[in-house]
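Exercise (ungraded).
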Amino acid sequence: MLFGFMKRKLRYLLSSSGQAGAGDDNKEKRAEQHMPPELSTSLDENVEALKNELSDGSDVKVHRFRFGPDLCYSGALVFIDGMTDSLFISEAILRPIVSWRTCDELPKARDIARTVSSDVICAGEVQLIASVSDCAASCLSGDAVFFADGCPEALQINAKGYEKRSVTEPASESVVRGPREGFTENLRTNTALLRRKIRSGRLRCESLTVGKRTQTHICLMYIDGIADKKVIETLKFRIKGLDVDSILESGYIEQYIEDAPLSPFSTVGYSEKPDVIAGRVLEGRVAVIIDGTPFVLTVPMLFVESFQTAEDYYSRPMYATMMRIVRYLAYIIAVFAPAIYISLTSFHHEMIPTTLLLTIAKAREGTPFPVFLETFIMVISFEILREGGIRLPRPVGQAISIVGALIMGDAAVSAGIVGAPVVITIAITAVASFLIPMQNESDTMLRLAMMALAAFAGFYGVAMGTFAILIHLATLTSFGAAYFDGFAWTRNLQDSIIRMPLWTMKRRPKHIAKGDTVRIKSFIPPLRPHAGESNRQAGDD
Amino acid sequence: MALFALGSLLLPLAGCWNQHELNKTFIVTGIALDQAEESGLLEVSLQIEKSEPESASSGSEGGQEKSSPTLVLKSVKSTMAQGIADINLRTSREVFIPHNQIMLFGTALAEEGMEQYMDMLLRDPESRMDVQMAIVDGKASDVLAADTGQELVSGTHLSNIINQQSQISTQYSTRITDFVRKLLSGSSSPVVPIVKLTKENEKESVSIEGMAVFVKDKLVGRLSNDEAQSYVWAMGDVKGGSFTAGSGDNLAVFLVDSLDCKRKVKKNGQSVRVEFEVDTVLRVSQIIGFTEVKFPDLIQKLTQTAQEEIKKKVEQTYESARGMGADIYDLGLSVYRKDPGEWESMKDQWGELFSKSELEVSVRAQIVDLGKSLLTIGMESASREGR
């Protein structure tokens, strides 16, 4: 309830400020449209204007040359060093232009750019542009701009060739079985990776640019006819409404567009693996690919998605189901284990078997702090160690983990600062929390909240907290889909806590896919091979 | 929003404020009640598990004499509740009763009557009803202080011994609820195991020595270990145990595989006839003698011996129970269950009827297993000589 109120308030504030921002933007655009700084016919002026627009950076290269029959024209090629492929510039642009010597009829000075584009150079992506700001934008995105003296138009030639990482195995989601390629920081590589998975003409790719300073390219990819149009519209509305300075990572977009910005639960999914994203897109979700990050967002996101891995669908259904149940169990342990330990040892001694109670009592003897403080210290020191392990360079990280393991696991216990059962509880909690990377943020937060409740009111507090979490989860939505939808009896349950065999998942999830919801039209049932054979014979006839 | 705030104010009203840190509690593993030396007063003893930090105890292991792992706190007050409250006041920590393993009563106290002590155990929300009960031959607090060397805590040790026996038959153990249920039935007599503390070469050990028989809430007599066994047989549903049968040189030890008994009460004018029908499956564990018996007759002979032994024992025990006037077999209860109307008419004179009752025991034994060898060595050689 509290979250809901804050959420509504914030959404109101966000939407009103967003609209105001959008209005300003439109005005600016109109002003630009009215008086665009047009290119002049003078080569020098144009080059100067462009250099000015690019703040005369030291990496802006201007190459002037004479060309054409009898070298009667002079021109210039402007590009930013490092963003372009120099071999491509010299071989595909400069060489044809400079070696252009003959023509039937000399073109007029103002048509040179057109002629060069159609008759001379060998580049694949060439466009005529007429304003200084367009020239600057194309330079900044890694294109080369060709000017000719006497021509009020310029040529934007795609010569992008900056350094980029190759497709490697993603570090955040490794698999035993399944494709090992992962997205990279390059937008085009990523869209291509996705297209290679889904070779369908209906896979649509819509480009947007967000960020006043960063001009980040964003690509929405979805399958036309499966994805919900409302989701696409909402997504576009939210992204286009953004008038922000910068978008550096998918996390920026996620925080600007998510339904519940103050919830501990993330309502936007992400993945680094093309096969995972392809699977989600095929279920009717929309992928948001952002230039500069290997993490691709998908909406809408359901709670069950956090517990699904790509490998679930590649391994046998029984095993996948078992592992999925283990993952749910691990999440419950990650959230509740320290709280249950606190409740048991400070409120409900009756519930522990006598022998275990005596063992715990022995371990507790002589420890200076109350159980809650003891557990809290351990949880916090674990978080410190984990953070240290992640941020530090790998060799130092190992040292941290050794020191941490010794201090936390052994020294603290033998010195009598904390009891061994606490260390065991925190250790199992920590290990369990690694099983669900998608919900890592939520379980860390909720664990602390639950611990506080347990210290305050024992199992009663934990039960209250659990109810609060469940109520909150049940009210959450993600782009029109209910966050908890995967657990509803009326919906498709084949792919929630259990993972049914693939041939039982005949339809796409009802709550996400709209339009063409049939996933499997016909198949030979694997359980009845003879029936299958007779079918096949009938088909042959 | 206001509703939410008001609602959240209601939450703490549910209670659950009894937070107690584990290292600020004394976990009670045994309670003993005795008559104090001053008349009319009660000595309450609580056995507490001394929880020393593990590192300290492991350090002192080398050669040094280990101190007892438990602590016995005593208080002399007029009632049990006051005694526990008094101990609570005098100690540095809170006494925590729910994990109590055993409830011990001194003989002298049991002879006086136990009803008043049951009340506190039933009323107190912290104490549990399924705690084992035992009568101590002598002073109950001595057993709590005993260092048995088998288990760390003698309370746990005792309840484990009793649990071990109740694997054979649940009749061997009596929980507080069992005791109270028998008291409430009006006719049945509770039977409670007797614990004896023996000291040999400075080594103390506790053992179960027979069972105490109560009439109402007062201890009136005892059953020896053998009598206790046949009492258990008569109650049926036995899953183990062994006994020796035979006479003179011919002895056989039988293992009870299963034993069941049907108890019937028949009213015969002014007297009551009780019928026990014992049905048992036995295995042979050891045979001594029986040299003159030929193999084909052996099983029959053994069966007969076993049947006679069971019959004799059951009759003897019944005899002693009848002598005490204690209906330990729940006979009154079975009459009531069968025909409440008839029980109404017998209820008032049941004590008299029971003490004049006649018993008829029929035993049907079945030996299913002679073991790995069929005959004894003596039998083999005897048969060879005969050939």
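Further reading is listed at the end of the chapter. For now, observe: The interface with chain A takes residues 1, 4, 11-12, 14-23, 25, 27, 29, 49, 51-56, 96, 98-99, 101, 126, 153, 156 of chain B (CB under 8 Å). Residues 54-65 of chain B have pLDDT under 50 and may be disordered.
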